[in-house]
Design a protein that fits this description.
129 residues; Arc Repressor Mutant, subunit A
């Protein structure tokens, strides 16, 4: 990680950028199979060399929400992309994101209001002529 900050960038902004970049990389590594373990917020904070409490405070101050909110949103974005653009089964998608398939369905439904299979069917219906 580059620790040199541009003169006009605050450390809190740099940590926020690093957090979002790390989430994108981590999820890409999970989906590609490079990584096989979903990291906890504490793990991410350690990697970014800050305490979990400090990371939470900074992300909330700079972005308006708890870091977990953004983590969940990025997981959902990856999931929706995989459901729409891949032939992976829902179970395979769940496993790549380190979820038990039944818990994954509950997680997805909680945030999207429909099951992953319903979402996939809806997307296929939208793309059909």
């Amino acid at each position: 990680m580059n620790t040199a900050l541009p003169p006009n960038r605050k450390r809190s902004e740099e940590i926020t950028i690093q957090y979002f970049e790390f989430l994108d990389r981590h999820l890409a590594e999970l989906i590609s199979g490079v990584s096989i373990e979903m990291l906890e917020l504490q793990d991410i904070a350690n990697i970014l060399c800050v305490s979990q409490k400090h990371l939470i405070k900074i992300i909330q101050e700079t972005s308006g929400n708890h870091p977990c909110h953004f983590y969940v949103q990025k997981i959902l974005t990856c999931t929706k992309s995989l459901l729409t653009n891949s032939e992976l089964t829902i179970s395979e998608i769940a496993q790549r994101l380190t979820y038990d398939p039944s818990n994954f369905t509950k997680f997805f439904k909680k945030y999207e209001g429909m099951s992953p299979s319903q979402f996939r069917q809806l997307q296929k219906a939208k793309s059909s002529p």
